[in-house]
Fold this sequence. Notes:
The protein is mostly helical. It is built from 5 helices and no strands. The longest helix has 41 residues, at 40-80. The protein is extended, with a radius of gyration of 20 Å.
Amino acid sequence: xxxxxxxxxxxxxWFGMAVLTMLVILVGIGVATWQFFENPKAIQGHLEAAKPxxxxxxxxxxxxxxxxxxxxxxxxxxxxxxxSEKLNFAISWRWRAALWLLVVEVGLIQGVIGTFLRYLFQx
Length: 123
């Protein structure tokens, strides 16, 4: 049985999803290997020390996404044969996407929701 992959049929979206999946798998393997060779308390200390840098990295990625959004949507639209109406709609979602990413950052990653719930149900 011969398995062939048709890269010319692979849309940019699915190529991006494949790259993102591989990145998540590699990060998972790296984290699992790190936990195998180092004490969990030491890992927690390293992660606490790296929090400001990781926050800066996330904000840099968010700023890059906001800045390049129209160009990314134009590229996506060109490769996916979007109509100009669909392209304008996608470009108009720039600030909504940024707002939702900020809500996720503040609410989940920075722990605001968890802290609020902890104080809410505290005796």
